[in-house]
Amino acid sequence: MNLRPFLAPLLAALLAIAGAHAQENQSIVVYGASGSIGGLIVNEALERGHSVIGVSRSPDRLTVEHANFTPVQGDVTDAESFTAVTSGADGVVISVQGTPEGDFAPENSTHALAASTAAEALVGMENAPYVLQIGGATTMLPTIEEMLANAPFPVSEGTPPYAMLIGHKVALDTYRASDIDWTVLTPPFGIMGWTPDGIADTQQLGEYRTSTTEFVTDADGNMSIWVADLAAAAIDELENRAFVRQRFTIGY
Ligand SMILES: NC(=O)c1ccc[n+]([C@@H]2O[C@H](COP(=O)([O-])OP(=O)(O)OC[C@H]3O[C@@H](n4cnc5c(N)ncnc54)[C@H](OP(=O)(O)O)[C@@H]3O)[C@@H](O)[C@H]2O)c1
């Protein structure tokens, strides 16, 4: 029996079920495009044929030269600016960090404010884009006490590291309480690929495993990911939307 006439429609139906959003040529906004991880996410998206709007408070910092790359000025903590930059996009990646001068409250860390800005700006937007934010590894732990006890550096309340760590928990809680389409991609502790000048390199394995509940460890018990594979996982998620309204982590 010749099965070929049936295979094409079957494949098309399976692809439609697998991911209505597995679109090529998405328009993707990247906050943190001037940053280490965000910069690689920009490169990955462009390599896969997507159009990228890179956002920075100082767009002169965005030196990518590519026909599908547009640098824009924007602030991820400003809802009006966020709305103007993201409306019409298919997806938004948020890969930012920072603490305001002299204010080390986790709620006021840039990544926590980014989540509340996204939730506020997107909730009523027509055809609102899907948001993926890069999170913090310690949020895989269930309590603040365990997060602090297992942090990879000393952390005490009222300091920038505390705001950074707990700010990621505030961001995750904000998304969980929101009514927008979001994903938080939580890296493992061991992000590999930093160079002495802080720029991530492009070494990668080209594969990774995922979990929504626990750290992903390899056969030797290591929790690690090449930063280029983290960038690939971010764009995989934008294309496949396997973890909408969930947090997931990755590892080998
Ligand atoms: N193991 C882990 O869990 C782990 C490890 C590393 C990083 N991370 C997380 O991954 C994310 C990215 O880290 P990274 O090392 O790539 O950061 P990075 O290199 O320090 O870059 C930070 C980015 O944040 C942007 N930014 C800061 N404030 C902003 C604002 N108000 N509006 C718009 N953009 C703003 C900066 O852009 P401009 O200055 O150009 O505006 C910059 O591109 C962070 O959330 C970080 O905590 C997690």
Structure explained in plain terms:
The protein has helices spanning 4-18, 36-47, 79-86, 110-122, 144-149, 160-176, 227-240; strands spanning 27-31, 51-56, 69-73, 91-94, 130-134, 182-186, 190-192, 209-211, 224-226, 246-251. With 252 residues, it is α/β, with parallel strands linked by helices. It has one domain: NAD(P)-binding Rossmann-like Domain (Rossmann fold). The strands form 2 sheets. It has an 8-stranded mixed beta sheet with strand order 3-2-1-4-5-6-10-8, sandwiched between helices. It has a two-stranded parallel ribbon with strand order 7-9. The chain is globular, with a radius of gyration of 19 Å. 42% of the residues are buried. The site of NADP nicotinamide-adenine-dinucleotide phosphate (NAP) has 27 residues, from α2, β2 and α4.
The appropriate CATH architecture is 3-Layer(aba) Sandwich
**Termini Cα gap:** 42 Å
Strand content: 15-25%
Ligand roster: NADP nicotinamide-adenine-dinucleotide phosphate
Which sequence of SSEs, written as H and E, runs from N to C?
A: HEHEEHEHEHHEEEEHE
The CATH H-level superfamily is: NAD(P)-binding Rossmann-like Domain
Number of structural units classed as domains: 1
Tally of separate helices = 7
Q: Show unreliable segments.
A: 3-20
Average pLDDT, rounded to a whole number, is 91
Descriptive keywords:
7 helices; two-stranded parallel sheet; alpha/beta; 252 residues; eight-stranded mixed beta sheet; 34% helix; globular; binds NADP nicotinamide-adenine-dinucleotide phosphate; Rossmann fold
Short structural description:
This protein has 252 residues and is of the alpha/beta class. It is 34% helix and 18% strand.
